Amino acid sequence: MRSVVSYVNRGGRMTVGQQRAWEDLWPSLGRTVGELPEGTVDFGDWFGRQAPVMVEIGSGMGETTSRLAAAAPELSYLAVEVYEPGLGQLMLRAEKLAVKNLRLMHGDAVVLLTSHVEPGSLSGVRLFFPDPWPKKRHHKRRIVQPAFVSLVASRLAPGGTFHMATDWENYAEQMMEVCSAEPLLRNRHADEPGGWAPRPEWRPVTKFENRADVEGRISHDLIFERV
Known about the structure:
Blueprint: H1 16-24, H2 26-29, E1 30-32, H3 43-47, E2 53-57, H4 65-71, E3 76-81, H5 84-96, E4 102-106, H6 109-116, E5 122-128, H7 146-155, E6 156-166, H8 169-180, E7 185-187, H9 207-214, E8 220-226
Parallel strand pairs: 1-4, 2-3, 2-5, 3-4, 5-6
Antiparallel strand pairs: 6-8, 7-8
Helix pairs in contact: 1-5, 4-5
EC number: 2.1.1.33
Binding site for substrate: 135, 167, 206-209
Catalytic activity: guanosine(46) in tRNA + S-adenosyl-L-methionine = N(7)-methylguanosine(46) in tRNA + S-adenosyl-L-homocysteine
């Protein structure tokens, strides 16, 4: 087990609806990282089709994840999250939108990618507004570190993308530095000012992004591609 992880195992009671989602929807939509058998996940079998697999790490309460999956039915969309009420809420949102191309994984994304995802198999990985761990002494807990970026890059198919977004300036700079140093990745928007990607119109505005705007922080998108 890793001694330093990027998340906190938060508690929190589930609503009646979230509990119902876990009881009724989780058996068909979800799996738990710690309970997976040895070896890689057969995404084609799980989704019931062969399609490009997109992994979103940290889906939170699912307000954007459900919409992103609904807007891209051509993708097999996998949301990875450690917060059980968030997964419950995501299932409710997906049910309301009649999303069919979404699956959920409860647990540590690093363990999932390391032990259960075949190298070169993903069309993309998304990491939107991860915990910024703003205090300097906590920066080691940020998920975007060289080893993590190397892991993500190894799981991407050639041309696959690693798309990040954050509203913390020094975290954005760290993401840019670490990803630029990874030999398997290239910045798709290296010619843009600062190397930042233009904000995609298709990415819904999150509550974190709204809060950042109110507090005067600028959000940055970064999109790197597997060479």
